[in-house]
Amino acid sequence: MELWKISQKVSELSDVIPYYFFSLVSSCLSLSTVLVVFSLGTWGVIGIIVISFYVVIPYLLFAVPVQVLFNKHPKKFSLNYFCLYIFFSLPAVFIYSSVLNFDFSLDILTTKNYYAISLLAALFFWFWDSVFLQKKSSAS
Fold first, then answer.
1. Helix 44-58 crosses helix 79-101 at what angle (to 10 degrees)?
2. CA separation (Å) from 7 to 2, 12, 45, 76, 120?
3. Distance, CA of 32 to CA of 117 (rounded, Å)
4. pTM to 2 decimal places
5. 3-class SS at 71?
6. Residue 138, by phi and psi: left (phi above 0), alpha (psi -120 to 50) or beta?
7. Are 63 and 85 in contact (CB under 8 A)?
8. Which pLDDT tens digit goes with each residue over 80-97?
């Protein structure tokens, strides 16, 4: 590949990176805020900050690569994208909670919290992705 093509690709990517960052940070803060509120607010602002640091890892590993793929064919508030975010959120929450709890059994799949957190994680990431990155508006 010629040098000017590489330079052009890097330039295009550097224009979009802040939007990926805003989407990621907004998703982490939204999810951690809801988790703190539903834990009866015992953690407060410190809890939001701490949980955000824990939440950023699965978002980076599972959601951002999917987000990059979706950004090639942008659609604001696409229900197809939302369903795919849910699909990737389920194993992400399972793996992450298994690692944090040192419990690799399938018992977590029987809890309502697992599905609620998976759905909320997907919903927040889908929403902020649509707000910051998906430029075209189309119906699904």
1. 110
2. 9, 9, 42, 29, 38
3. 10
4. 0.80
5. coil
6. beta
7. yes
8. 999 999 999 999 998 888
